[in-house]
Amino acid sequence: MKKIHKINIIVAFLLSMLSACVEKIDIDAGEGESQYVVEGMIVYDPLDPNKLVKDTIRITKSIAYLNNGQAPTVSNAVVAIIDSSSSPAVLDLCVNVGNGKYVPTQIVPKPKGRYYLLIRFAEGDTVISYSEINRPCYFNKDSIYTTVLTDESQGRTGP
Predict the structure, then answer these.
(1) pLDDT category, 141, cuts 50, 70, 90?
(2) How confident is the model at residue 155 (pLDDT cuts 50, 70, 90)?
(3) Cβ(56)–Cβ(40) below 8 Å
(4) Reduced to 3 states, what is the DSSP secondary structure of residue 39?
(5) Dihedral over alpha carbons 8, 13, 18, 23 (to 10 degrees)
(6) Cβ atoms 104, 53 nearer than 8 A
């Protein structure tokens, strides 16, 4: 009986040590300045090099840290991609397909291609970005690995 009494005292002591006070704290993080967020990628598919870019460029505006809603989309921008590796350079005005997404229509990505992304927002701001396809990659859509092609992987001429 004394043994059960000691166990009850030990259990009560441990439970009192594990309990804690809970106090709600409200943090005023403020809204902050909303910024443009641009997501996009130029994809070269070595399995089908003549395929047009199917990926879209998505433009949204950032939201406050504690906001659980969706980021507002930007649908009134002018988006263009310039292929500067072609002679003459090719300008591709992207088509707005809604929900802040813009799709290029005529750019055919190629290895060692040099591309500029130009975005003109309705407020007058302009963004210019540069990218280059250094080496082609096979992206396996249903796998978690990629195969990078190098000059050694397909002989001296490369892919």
Answers:
(1) low
(2) very low
(3) yes
(4) strand
(5) 120
(6) yes
Checking if the pLDDT of 14 tops 80, the result is no
Structure-block tokens of residue 56: 């879209």
- pTM exceeding the 0.70 threshold for the entire prediction: no
Distance CA 153, CA 156 (A): 9
Compute how many other C-beta atoms are within 10 angstroms of the C-beta atom of residue 100: 22
Asked if 36 contacts 127 with a C-beta cutoff of 8 angstroms, the reply is yes
- 37's tokens: 């967020």
CA 152 – CA 51 distance, rounded (Å) = 25
Q: Which residue has the tokens 């005529």?
A: 106
Instruction: Tell me the β-bridge partners of 81.
Output: 92, 117
